[in-house]
Give the backbone structure.
Amino acid sequence: MVTEREQGLTTRDGFGSALGTKAITARGELGIPYTTLRLMDKLQKHTTWHVTFTSVSGKCRSATHDNYLGDEKVIFKSQASSMIKTPSSRAVSRLLPLCAKAPTPAASSIARRSLATVVEPIQKDPTELDEITTLPNGVRVATEALPGHFSGIGVYIDAGSRYENEHLRGVSHIMDRLAFKSTTKRTSDEMLEALESLGGNIQCASSRESLMYQSATFNSAVPTTVALLAETIRDPLITEEEVQQQLETASYEIGEIWSKPELILPELVHMAAYKDNTLGNPLLCPKERLDKIDKSVIEAYRKAFFKPERIVVAFAGVEHKEAVRLTEQYFGDMKSEDSPELSRTGSETSLDSASEASSTSSSESASAPPSPVQQSSNLLSRLPFLKNLSTSGPTQASVLSDLSLPPTQEQILAPSQYTGGFVALPVLPPPINPSLPPLTHIHLAFEALPISSDDIYALATLQTLLGGGGSFSAGGPGKGMYSRLYTNVLNQHGWVESCVAFNHSYTDSGLFGITSSCTPSKVVQMLDVMCRELQALTLENGFSSLQMIEVNRAKNQLRSSLLMNLESRMVELEDLGRQVQVHGSKVGVREMCNKIDQLTVQDLRRVARDVLQGLVKNPGQGSGAPTVVLQEGEEGNGVKRKQLAWAEIQDRISRWKLGRR
């Protein structure tokens, strides 16, 4: 075996450094069987090295290499002090008999090798090439440079109905409708024309915890898109005429949604579960608030939430340096306008003196706002057509007594408080179309885990395992036809129209449960079936307990759904922006899939018990009670039945050992 031993490297100047050297393998037509020599990469005009090396034959030789302005001569000096001085190529040829025998097979293989083998490190998954930079003013820039024909650009603002107080109630709903209207630089028509010229997809949407401006556009149009997003976010004109137009549109939209139980009941579940606080604030603008919203209220909302430290600008398919440059150009000079903050002195609360100058006269003597657990605004009781409202929570949240004040920092940072409760809507009249059956709609929910919980993957797997759908389905592989709500409910009871599991996750709380529709005469049986399916998730033994085969199926379905959804540029963009907004970092899809794969039956059973038995411990310290929203349907034959009371519903749920006892 050929061994390599470097004996030394010195120069006439006495420097023994190996810096700046590279390895050169002796090879070529001369067939020199020497191992690697370490020589300086760049030769000076007059430099001499004395190198000792070992040949394949094991004989030690030393050499001195002189370079005189390119006139190279090599002097090989043997240990016997025999001296040969000749041009380098000839000297090498003459020394072959002296230095080595004929090349061995091993040496020949080395001589034939022309290139070195380079072992490259394992590359990152393309979906994990994310970077995050925070600008000096607090704006966060997040990128995921996954290449494609289209790029995604999104601006995510920490705003939404969760942060609204009574003065700003419903403004988030109007804000997303005022996007991409007139600005200080162009009219509404000019803005529309500029958007259409991009040839992509651009939109604005509000949720409970975020206001999202998003676009998918051609790569070449990224700078223009960022400029338009910045313009509509930072420099909107917001005329009274535009506000009035959007209020009229919102009024029609509210009426339409209230006429559709499948749309309004999820909204009422939130309002009952978090009565009069944070996540219970209506996502839709209440009708009684429409005539109280004007340009000044919109500006107050913008001043409270449109701050650089509350903004994330996300890019999908854009290089990070370019993304940072564009964000600095259009958002880098954005400054935070401090809103009045509360400073406590003993048991009193007053506005900071620095903020009093910009506050209204009514706010100068403002007292401390009530605690989120002191009194109720009874928002649900003022909703149209609301018949009955009960709460399981011992306390309810409140709003500011002075309605002219914007939300305080204390309110914005207040944790959501789960109360649980019951909402009963008026009886639905029979459908106008006689071919459609009358239906009763039920939502049953419990407080679940926040998005930051380590068990969120187990909860998502439980939702997939329950699955569900409508009475009609095209079927086929991968559509959840073997999920529990299909096999145990829809395929077993002909009076069930639909039965679906849901899971809503937020920053500090969540909701998990089942929604269903059934024949009006079967409402009691439907409630029992829903409770039975939820309780089965917690059982340790028995035929209905969780089985490995269905858990593995649910895990595969969840991974498949996750990966297929992320193929969409808009989904990829929102996932990046919202993760950075909530966590401050990005969890890669590979890591998410690994966490799903590591789940066991015991993990799912433990999480199911925590959620369904009211044992979840979130910052708001919820009541652990169930939440039920019910809208019964009127039977076509005119038969009127006695509606279920909240006490009876609670008793039935308790029999199934659900909720905190």
User: Anything to note?
Assistant: The first strand starts at residue 8 and ends at 11.
